[in-house]
From TrEMBL:
The record marks S146, R153, K155, T156 as: Part of the allosteric site. It catalyses: alpha-D-glucosamine 6-phosphate + H2O = beta-D-fructose 6-phosphate + NH4(+). Keywords: Allosteric enzyme, Carbohydrate metabolism, Hydrolase. This is Glucosamine-6-phosphate deaminase. Catalyzes the reversible isomerization-deamination of glucosamine 6-phosphate (GlcN6P) to form fructose 6-phosphate (Fru6P) and ammonium ion. CDD domains: GlcN6P_deaminase (cd01399). It is an enzyme of class 3 (hydrolase). The gene is nagB. One of its GO terms (molecular function) is glucosamine-6-phosphate deaminase activity. Pathway: Amino-sugar metabolism; N-acetylneuraminate degradation; D-fructose 6-phosphate from N-acetylneuraminate: step 5/5. Residues 9-228 form the Glucosamine/galactosamine-6-phosphate isomerase domain. Pfam families: Glucosamine_iso (PF01182). It comes from Pseudoalteromonas fenneropenaei. It comes from the Bacteria. Allosterically activated by N-acetylglucosamine 6-phosphate (GlcNAc6P).
Length: 241
């Protein structure tokens, strides 16, 4: 694991954007693994700025998102497909047909998970996977106790994650308790992994991921096994290392 500690969230976003820019410039048909949550938003804004300035192009890129709420269609404002359209895809020169988010409205979610894995394989695998981290150490929606070799599947969310993400939902709005997520094994197959974490509320999870034992109790600790994992964090997130 390479640990990069930077001053603040803005520097973390720029550093992450540099890694993605380099990948997009190096390989015309880059395959990017993308993430949702509040952490990657600033990185996406930086990539949009660079794309609109003509510094980087998504024209031939393919993307695969980590996860989606099961039970929400892509038109639902709380779905991760909607989030990605709003936060990135609608503002860059990507061909939307090449953007993939697990289908939250799949009639047969189990088959849909297998199909998602097959699509990643058919694209030649993921070049760089972007990740955030949950306060309980989850990556994607791989909650604590997730198998370290797991593949894309349906996962129940823990109460901690439901509570953490409740801020995105209105008080009377239905909040899903199930998800489709790439597995830890799927994530580890990416040729490079870039995890961003900012703020003091991520400090315990960062410590467990970096300094703790390799354990399903902290899914992000599986990144210790990856050959090219870059952990980009600000001083606050690094404060317990
Ligand atoms: C969600 C997502 C994760 C994300 C996590 C942290 O649960 N499924 O992929 O890393 O939230 O989100 P945030 O960046 O908002 O703290």
């Amino acid at each position: 694991m390479q640990i990069v500690i930077l001053k603040d969230a803005a520097e973390v976003a720029r550093y992450g954007a540099d890694i993605f820019t380099t990948q997009l410039q190096r390989k015309a048909g880059a395959v990017l693994g993308l993430a949702t949550g509040s952490t990657p938003v600033a990185l996406y804004q930086e990539l949009i700025r660079r794309n609109q300035a003509g510094e980087v192009s998504f024209k031939n890129a393919t993307t695969f998102n980590l996860d989606e709420y099961l039970g929400l269609s892509g038109e639902h404002p709380q779905s991760y497909r909607y989030f990605m359209d709003q936060q990135l895809f609608d503002h860059v020169d990507i061909d939307k047909n090449n953007t993939h988010v697990p289908p939250g409205d799949a009639k047969n979610p189990i088959t849909a998970c297998q199909e998602y894995e097959a699509k990643i394989a058919a694209a030649g695998g993921i070049d760089i996977q972007l990740l955030g981290i949950g306060r309980n150490g989850h990556i994607g929606f791989n909650e604590p106790s997730s198998g370290l070799t797991s593949r894309t599947r349906v996962k129940t969310l823990t109460k901690a994650t439901i509570d953490d993400n409740a801020r995105f939902f209105a008080a009377d709005e239905y909040q899903p308790h199930l998800s489709i997520t790439m597995g830890i094994g799927t994530i580890l197959d990416a040729r490079k992994v870039v995890l961003l974490a900012t703020g003091e509320n991520k400090a315990d999870a960062v410590k467990a991921m970096v300094e703790g034992p390799l354990t399903a109790a902290c899914p992000a600790s599986a990144l210790q096994l990856h050959r090219d994992a870059v952990i980009v964090i600000d001083l606050a997130a690094a404060s317990k290392l």
